[in-house]
Amino acid sequence: MIFQEFNLLDRLTVHKNVLVGRLGYMTSLSSVLHRFSKTDRALALECLKRVGLEGLDRRRVRDLSGGQKQRVAIARALVQQAQILIADEATANLDLVTKREIMGLIVDLSQQNGLTAILSMHDLDLAKRYCTRIVGLKDGRITFDAKPGELTDEVIEDVLIPTRAQGNG
Hints:
Elements: H1 14-19, H2 28-33, H3 38-50, H4 66-78, E1 84-88, H5 96-113, E2 116-120, H6 124-130, E3 134-138, E4 141-146, H7 153-160
Parallel strand pairs: 1-2
Antiparallel strand pairs: 3-4
Helix pairs in contact: 3-4, 4-5
């Protein structure tokens, strides 16, 4: 899972934040003591390399930019070796250039690892540019499910924009 607000531990190093993704795979005692195996430590470093943060493993997260923090969060998700990557507004707190970099990274990593990526996002331009399928919701129901090229301005207006309550203009 990749979160909108990063959900990283600012006081810990980049490497330790990625290793947090391995806690569920450890014994309770090892988890409490933060005693990670050599394999887990090496895997975390490899994931950092894959997201472009090689050499930053000893820096504190609090000293990173927003884009770097999101890359740490992506590495934390990758270290779990899951088959599905879920991202909740993963680009919401980033500038336009960094949004594109992060979306490109998610797409590349998904393709390289054979992962299914499920992204919750409100930026339709990014969705149309990077996603292979868009599912739209309106009033809690699926109202659109197709390829990005089929998401026209008309569809956006008629199908995706929430219905206004009567009397609210």
